[in-house]
Amino acid sequence: MYLFLMAIWIILNGRITLEVLAFGLVISAALYWFICKFMDYGIGKDIRILDQIFSIIRYAFVLVLEIIKANLAVIHLIISGKDQIEPALVSFRTDLKTDTAKAFMANAITLTPGTITVTLTEDEYVVHCLDKDLAYGMNDTVISRMLIDMEEKSTAGMPEDTPKHTTEETGQSGQRLKNESGKSRKGRKK
């Protein structure tokens, strides 16, 4: 985190001089101390992040690929001239335990075109999909599996303070689908 703060300082200054580096070292140290003292952060978290740096890079790469695939799906939906686009609200549960992983999942859903996270309560997501075809398999994606793996690696050897959540079984894909009129339908895989 300290190196990240220092890099941000240098980027915002736009040049590297002795004065910029000296002020950056002091300001970054003060910010790092503040974050550790008041925001429940510490060197242990830095070490866990460094242990997972390759997983984080892989996650970012896969997320970009998923965004590209979703862009192509939305473009296909638009170009195909489908007469009726059927928006859907999808409700599903996740196996993610930490709030950070849940937030990353919600952000990944929102970043992909055609979907937006409406609510996240405990372990249940409600997602609006541009078309019902984009909703299938929402609860079992490559992103969610990667986040679960990263979460398990980061909490290995630590006491478990939150219970593990289970996936809600509704239909073959484990999703409840609702169209815009509010009528419930069971999800199914294609």
Outline the secondary-structure elements.
Layout: H1 2-13, H2 18-38, H3 43-51, H4 53-79, E1 88-93, H5 99-111, E2 115-121, E3 124-129, H6 142-154, E4 176-179, E5 184-186
Antiparallel strand pairs: 1-3, 1-4, 2-3, 4-5
Can you put this structure into words, describing what you see?
It is a single chain. The chain has two domains: 2-45; 85-186, 2-Layer Sandwich (Alpha-Beta Plaits), CATH 3.30.70. 50% of the residues lie in helices and 14% in strands. It contains six helices and five strands, in the order H-H-H-H-E-H-E-E-H-E-E. A hairpin with a 4-residue loop joins strand 4 and strand 5. The termini are far apart.
Query: What sort of overall outline do the alpha carbons produce when their principal axes are compared?
Result: elongated
Overall tally of domains: 2
Write the H/E string, N to C.
HHHHEHEEHEE
Average predicted confidence as pLDDT: 80
Any idea what the radius of gyration is? 21 Å
What is the end-to-end distance? 44 Å
Strands in their spatial order, largest beta sheet: 2-3-1-4-5
Number of helices: 6
Roughly what fraction of the amino acids lie in strands?
Answer: 5-15%
Main sheet: strands, sense, barrel: 5 strands, antiparallel
Instruction: State the share of residues found in helices, binned by percent.
Output: 40-55%
Structural class: alpha+beta
Poorly predicted sequence stretches spanning 5 or more consecutive residues: 161-174, 179-190
In CATH, the architecture of the largest domain is 2-Layer Sandwich
CATH class of the largest domain: Alpha Beta
CATH topology of the largest domain: Alpha-Beta Plaits
Count of DSSP E strands? 5
User: How would you name the oligomeric state of the polypeptide chains in this document?
Assistant: single chain
